[in-house]
Write a structure and sequence with these properties.
Layout (H helix, E strand, L loop, with lengths): L1 H11 L22 E7 L2 E8 L9 H15 L3 E8 L7 H12 L2 H9 L1 H11 L5
Parallel strand pairs: 2-3
Antiparallel strand pairs: 1-2
Helix pairs in contact: 2-3, 2-5
């Protein structure tokens, strides 16, 4: 599973932060340790990502989660289920509003609806574009 986790990390590490010119890897929003992969069945995997926003009051945590969702859905060559969460203790909205943020990040219909918004889609596209593109 370690090889699959590194493959997932390689996909997400180059995502750009929505506000800064840096990648999520450069900002320590994602690290190799934030990715866990479990086998669900033959050639099917559960990917769990726990990311750390750049600041405890980050208002763009949901957008970062959306970028992670979009890039992984587009780039992973194997069948998978995604679960993306904000790491515990890294965001000020911990108790009451962290659950809804995590739920929103993992709701396929909300992700699809967000990507129908042209302004939001443009931001996500700028964040997930590969540096060589």
């Amino acid at each position: 599973m370690e090889e699959k986790a590194l493959e997932v990390y390689d996909v997400i590490r180059t995502i750009r932060d929505p506000e800064k010119p840096n990648t999520l890897e450069e900002l320590d929003v994602v690290t190799e340790n934030c990715v866990e992969v479990r086998e669900l069945g033959p050639e099917e995997y559960l990917i769990i990502i726990k990311f750390s926003p750049t600041v405890p009051h980050c208002s763009l945590a949901t957008l970062i989660g959306l970028c992670l969702q979009v890039k992984l859905q587009r780039c992973l060559p194997f069948k998978h289920k995604l679960e993306i969460y904000i790491s515990e203790g890294t965001h000020t909205t911990e108790e009451d509003s962290l659950r809804p943020v995590n739920k929103q990040i993992n709701d396929k219909e909300r992700v699809a609806a967000a990507m129908e918004n042209p302004d939001l889609r443009d931001i996500v596209e700028q964040c997930v574009i590969e540096p060589d593109d």
